[in-house]
Design goal:
Chain A: GO terms for molecular function: structural constituent of ribosome. The complex is a heterodimer. Chain A is mainly alpha-helical. Chain A has helices at residues 2-17, 26-31, 67-71, 75-102, 110-137, 172-176, 186-217, 219-227; strands at 146-150, 156-160. Chain A is built from 8 helices and 2 strands. In chain A, a hairpin with a 5-residue loop joins strand 1 and strand 2 (156-160). In chain A, helix 4 packs antiparallel against helix 5 (110-137). Chain B has helices at 2-6, 77-87, 147-166; strands at 9-10, 45-46, 54-56, 66-71, 92-100, 119-126. The chains are: A mainly alpha, B alpha+beta. At the A-B interface, helix 4 and helix 5 of A face strand 3 of B.
Chain lengths: 230, 181
């Protein structure tokens, strides 16, 4: 509290008198246990953990946010939570890098995984809301427009559209791309189909073989499975 | 000035009851192609940045007002300035960036090259004559008084119990156990 009031006094003195360093004595601030001479109390300190946790082997932390918990929150709350998680993640990344530098183990590295999982879940929830809104308002299933087209190799692909400042018929680079296949490609399309058919046939025959083997080895179990009500 | 025009601005972090606009398409900062900009378009704004930065200890001695960061490759110095000013309330005077090449020289057991990822380093000079020194995050802590007495007590109790089990019946007068009926 004394440090905070001192900080406020310093800020007022500095903005009033425009004196850079003579009023703040480094010794006084060092005695209060601060890292650096700064006006904003919570500036770069947010890149580091609570000083009590420095040098500890383990730091306790709760579980990560689940998708269902996040779905119950409003957009404002999710927005604020994103930045809270962002700052925590930056802090943990800083700690990880420093631990690597000092060749010491990072205390409780599972915190970083939890934060990353929470942020992914938050992103997923926001994307869900965004998709629902877009479907209701415009009926578009995908955010980025695209189309099914046959490429030069005869494959049917989902071509995603890019943003250009000029129309397509003036676009030299786009017109060099061919969205059609010449007749000599049909043979390779047939070969590709054959390859896929062979792979699927192999899988099916392997499944049948395994089934037959199990049936032979455990004949009593197959009827039990059929008759069980579970 | 042109740099500032073209970089995407970070939307201000919420202070108080701020309304996140629901109808704006969610734009992600990293791993995304920014929408095309043409003269007269509104300033591009990214809510919920995807950029994560780390404060690192400088390898070579830096001036007192310089802070060193590792930032994603896609982030620019203008982006970093906005990031620090709006999310962390850190006044920034100047930012300089460089790309550090991660070595591709090491080879693994089958002589395939192992690449260490490239990263961008930013040197940020703080405004208003502020200084920063990288703190010692792993100070040697003496064994806390709470932990050790408890451990020692438990160990002592275990030792006592073991000795009691192994000691012979005092009524036998020191005679070994294998004598007897």
């Amino acid at each position: 509290m004394a440090a905070a009031s001192f900080g406020v006094l310093c800020r007022k003195a500095l903005t009033g008198l425009k004196v850079s360093r003579s009023l703040i004595s480094p010794q006084a601030l060092a005695s209060t246990g601060l890292l650096h001479t700064t006006l904003s109390r919570k500036g770069l300190e947010e890149f580091f953990d609570d000083p009590k946790n420095w040098g500890e082997e383990k730091v306790k932390s709760g579980a990560s946010w689940t998708c269902q918990q996040l779905r119950n929150k409003s957009n404002e709350d999710l927005h604020k939570l994103w930045y809270v998680l962002l700052k925590e993640r930056n802090m943990l990344l800083t700690l990880e890098q420093e631990a690597k530098r000092q060749k010491l183990p990072m205390p409780s590295p599972e915190r970083l995984e939890k934060v990353i999982d929470s942020m992914d879940a938050l992103d997923k929830v926001v994307q869900e809301r965004e998709d629902a809104l877009r479907l209701l308002q415009t009926g578009q299933e995908k955010a980025r427009p695209g189309a099914w087209r046959r490429d030069i190799f005869g494959r049917i692909i989902w071509h995603k559209f890019k943003q250009w400042p000029i129309p397509w018929y003036l676009n030299k680079r786009y017109n060099r791309k061919r969205f059609f296949a010449m007749p000599y490609v049909e043979r390779f399309v047939r070969l590709r189909l054959e390859k896929q058919a062979r792979i699927e046939a192999r899988k099916k025959s392997l499944e049948k073989k395994k089934e037959k083997f199990l049936q032979k080895k455990f004949p009593h179990l197959s009827e039990a499975q059929k008759s069980s009500l579970v | 000035m042109s740099d500032r025009m073209h970089a995407c601005a970070l939307a201000p972090a919420p202070r108080g009851p701020a309304l996140a606009p629901p109808a704006v398409p969610q734009l992600v900062a990293r791993g995304n192609r920014y929408p095309l900009y043409q003269l007269g378009n509104p300033q591009l704004r990214v809510f919920r940045t995807n950029f994560f930065i780390q404060l690192v200890r400088p390898g070579t001695a830096q001036p007192e007002d310089t802070v060193q960061f590792r930032i994603p490759m896609e982030m620019t110095r203008v982006d970093l300035r906005n990031y620090l000013e709006r999310i962390y309330n850190v006044p920034v005077a100047a930012v300089r960036t460089r790309v550090q090449h991660g070595s591709n020289r090491k080879r693994d057991y089958r002589n395939a090259r192992v690449k260490k990822p490239d990263y961008k380093v930013a040197y940020v000079q703080l405004a208003h004559g502020q200084t920063f020194t990288f703190p010692d995050l792993f100070p040697e802590k003496e064994q806390s008084p709470d932990g050790s007495p408890g451990d020692e007590d438990i160990q002592d109790k275990l030792l006592e119990e073991q000795q009691r089990r192994q000691s012979r019946d005092p009524r036998r007068g020191g005679v070994p156990d294998w004598f007897g009926l």
